[in-house]
Amino acid sequence: MTTGKYPRMLVRRSKPFNPLWVAKETEKIVCDNESRKYTAFYATGVYGGIATGYAVGCCFRCFFCWSDWSRDFPELYGEFYSAEEAYRNIVKAAKKWGVRRARISACEPTLCRDHLVKLLEMIDKDDRIELFILETNGILFGVNRNYVKEISSFKKVHVRVSLKAGTPEAFSMRTGAVKEAFYLPFEAIKNLLKYNVSFHVAAMTDPRLMSENECLELIRRLREINDVVAANLEEEICDPYDTTIVRMQVYGVNPVKFFRKKLIWY
Length: 266
Hints:
Layout (H helix, E strand, L loop, with lengths): L18 H12 E2 L2 E10 L5 E6 L23 E4 H15 L3 E5 L7 H12 L6 E6 L2 H5 L1 H7 L5 E7 L4 H8 L8 H11 L4 E5 L8 H14 L1 H5 L2 E2 L6 H10 L3 H6 L6
Parallel strand pairs: 3-5, 5-6, 6-7, 7-8, 8-9
Antiparallel strand pairs: 1-2, 2-3, 2-4
Helix pairs in contact: 2-3
């Protein structure tokens, strides 16, 4: 595993990093046994209403990311919550806003494995939560089949695998990770199928970021794995959050010109 300077915001032509190394280094900051850093607990309107634990830490540095600055500077933000404390805060938010779905967001939730598993054990036994949506970039699920097998034991979990690109070159450019890591989320999809986990795939297919040819290549790769998975692809667009705008500027993309482009789907 390569080492180097811990990456913050992505700069064009910066040296690609190994996301597995970044995951390990991030876990040293945001994980403490069964505890993990969070900045807030609340409910939001996506997925028809969902209670959310806003957690800290990711192993990608996408220049179009919407998450707050805790992604780039995890040591400066958040407080540690045990799995039980996080569970109670998520359920409290669900009760307050009258929703029955839950998730961890704004981060890579598969970091801090002990925390996540303990949290899901409690969620799985609580009738007040009917569904937990696990949003992931797929890196750790792609490299560790046993992790996916463990997640498969939780009946309320639905996994959302978020793909960032359709080619290794585009993947490295957008995430900052080495090209070789491009294949890991596709391995995660295979592992999820193997263990019969409920899941679907999303992708940042915003035509202002992804060309038609790249989009077709991404779909081709998904079809090689499973036609149903490909047919149910969720397509994402890039929104002008304040953090997104700054990250684009740092990367070298003019956000004004970017967001003025007409959003025309292929």
